[in-house]
């Protein structure tokens, strides 16, 4: 089982990376930089020169939650993701990419069949994600956005990874740990350290489930 782990920053996966780096596992880690464009570029570049393919791509990272009933530090699966900005305004309405026939803006994950039996996977609660260019931090824009877009969590890369995996027909999973609530910008209330610790522990558990 050859796996590609995709993270926006080294910081988000460094604890995991330093623990597995001498184990010679069939796991590659790629750091893309934050955002959908750097993510699509890095993955395109990687696959253009890769000598082999993968059985699974896993996008991991921190994320913001629109929902207060998801605790900070929770590690969750994003099984649906979308590019919310792709589409067209039509007066007060918004037409999605699908509505105007320009392509897809919404994606679902796809796991190898055997994966549901791993407890690291079956324990995860699934939520709907949205992939944005701007981290929301204004109450009015959050209200407008959530009245249009059906999402529980937001990140800046998820849908781009789903897009690439779909295009290459490779199974894909997105697992994120909640670092903050989507609210009027307040960096002091973020718990990035807890989110990253929990995410790295989850990655270690998944690795044990698969390779031990
Ligand atoms: O606002 C800042 O000063 C600031 C400094 C460093 C990093 C950030 C981020 O927003 C991190 C973005 C990074 O983490 C993911 N992420 C985490 N929370 C959210 C969110 O509420 N909305 C969207 N993305 C989020 C994202 O995938 C990026 O990779 C800010």
Kindly list the characteristics that best describe this protein:
five-stranded mixed barrel, Nucleoside_phosphorylase_d, two-stranded antiparallel ribbon, 27% strand, Rossmann fold, 31% helix, binds ligand LNDFFVEH, alpha/beta, 212 residues
What are the segments in which pLDDT stays under 50 over at least 5 consecutive residues? none
* Number of separate domains: 1
- Element order, helices and strands? EHEHEEEEEHEHEHEH
Task: Assign a percent range to the helix content.
Answer: 25-40%
Largest sheet: 5 strands, mixed, barrel
What multimeric state do the chains show?
Answer: single chain
Under CATH, the topology is which?
Rossmann fold
Number of helical regions? 6
Helical/strand content category: alpha/beta
Give the CATH architecture.
3-Layer(aba) Sandwich
Rounded average pLDDT: 97
- Report the principal-axis shape: globular
Hetero compounds? the ligand O=C(O)c1cccc(C(=O)CC[C@H]2O[C@@H](n3cnc4c(=O)[nH]cnc43)[C@H](O)[C@@H]2O)c1
Provide the gyration radius in Å. 17 Å
**Spatial order of the strands forming the largest sheet:** 3-9-8-4-10
Distance between the ends: 12 Å
- The CATH class: Alpha Beta
Number of beta strands: 10
The CATH homologous superfamily: Nucleoside phosphorylase domain
Strand coverage percent: 25-35%
GO molecular function: hydrolase activity, acting on glycosyl bonds
Function: Catalyzes the hydrolysis of futalosine (FL) to dehypoxanthine futalosine (DHFL) and hypoxanthine, a step in the biosynthesis of menaquinone (MK, vitamin K2).
InterPro entries: FL_hydrolase_MqnB (IPR019963), Nucleoside_phosphorylase_d (IPR000845), Nucleoside_phosphorylase_sf (IPR035994)
Organism: Albibacterium profundi
């Amino acid at each position: 089982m050859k796996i590609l782990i995709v993270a926006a920053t080294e910081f988000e996966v460094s604890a995991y990376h330093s623990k597995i780096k001498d184990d010679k596992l069939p796991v590659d880690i790629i750091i893309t930089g934050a955002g959908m464009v750097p993510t699509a570029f890095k993955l395109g570049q990687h696959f253009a020169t890769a000598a082999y393919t993968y059985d699974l791509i896993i996008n991991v990272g921190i994320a913001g939650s629109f929902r207060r009933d998801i605790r900070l530090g929770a590690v969750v699966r994003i099984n649906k993701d979308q590019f919310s900005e792709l589409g067209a305004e039509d007066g007060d309405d918004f037409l999605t990419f699908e509505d105007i026939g320009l392509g897809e803006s919404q994606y679902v994950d796809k796991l190898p069949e055997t994966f549901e039996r791993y407890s690291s996977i079956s324990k995860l609660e699934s939520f709907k994600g949205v992939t944005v260019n701007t981290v929301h931090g204004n109450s009015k824009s959050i209200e407008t956005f959530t009245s249009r877009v059906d999402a529980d969590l937001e990140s800046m890369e998820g849908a781009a990874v789903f897009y690439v995996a779909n295009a290459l027909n490779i199974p894909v999973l997105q697992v994120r740990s909640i670092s903050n609530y989507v609210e009027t910008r307040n960096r002091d209330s973020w718990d990035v350290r807890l989110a990253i610790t929990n995410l790295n522990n989850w990655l270690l558990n998944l690795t044990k489930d698969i390779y031990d």
